[in-house]
Amino acid sequence: MLIEIVKRTPLWVFLLFFILLGMGYIQSRDRSVRRGMVAILPVVMISLSLYGVVSAFGFVTTGVVLWILGVSIALGFGIKIATPENVTFIADTQTFVVPGSWVPLILMMAIFFMKYAVGVILARQLLIANELVFVSLVSLCYGLMSGAFLARATVILNSKTQLRA
User: Fold this and answer.
1) pLDDT, tens only, 58-67
2) Does an H or E element contain 155, and which?
């Protein structure tokens, strides 16, 4: 059954997997990031996760509300625990020096595999797909994971440590 699922997976899904792996690997290394670029990954991941909820379940109030709740919870906790630490802002070049972290890769893979599993469940028309508990948990998880990206970007953008170039 697993082999059959993989055989029926469109090629673009494998391409997306490797793109996300590459993006996650880049995030694992120390790097300089321009102010405007800090928000791109969170915007993409939030958009993809909201699209995942709406495309899987339709514009169901419960799903959207729980997705928003998940984003809010992740944003609140993420800002409080203040990761990533040791971010430095270089005012002259308007760039942030961000330490590498494997957390973005883990989150990207979690969203990817969750979306993949939900897609398989929907394609196989399993009864669980219609259960309110399933819709609620998937929506909340999508929100939590993508909200973590937003929290990370917020912490980076609010970094107070400055260096001169």
Assistant:
1) 888 999 999 9
2) helix 132-157
